[in-house]
């Protein structure tokens, strides 16, 4: 299922954080776009591209976590440690998956099934985490100067566009 940005449901009240979450949705949707390709489980070059995108997504997530943790810290939010811990666990798991994928790619054994597992993990982790932890930031957004809930314009495009274009072209 494609991730769709629903502002009411997912907003943290901080525009830059929402924008980054929306970009992460795009990255995860890019993985799904790739998986829809008939050659997703066969073409080695395309598989190299998907690993490149997953690497990029991991780096983007890491940068996003740092930005978000700063907001939790700044407002001394009661969930700041929970948030940090969840990010850390996610990144550990992600690195583990990346190593597994790279090893499979090197042995030419990377299958669509493995990528589907990653997709499910990414999608469910991110949605759960935003709903359970990140949206708790709304408590302090009302008094924040960074942004207001109203001025959030989440268009969610740009960061992953070169990958999305590649997968569309090869679809
Ligand atoms: Fe978070």
TrEMBL record:
NAD recorded as keyword: no
Cross-referenced CDD domains: Hemerythrin
MF GO annotations: metal ion binding
Recorded superkingdom: Bacteria
Transmembrane spans: none
Record-annotated Hemerythrin-like domain positions: 13-135
Cleavable signal peptide: none
Gene3D superfamilies: Hemerythrin-like
Record's keyword annotation contains Cell division: no
Matches recorded under PANTHER family: BACTERIOHEMERYTHRIN (PTHR37164:SF1)
The family this protein is said to belong to: Belongs to the hemerythrin family.
Protein known as: Hemerythrin
High-level lineage: Bacteria, Pseudomonadati, Thermodesulfobacteriota, Desulfobulbia, Desulfobulbales
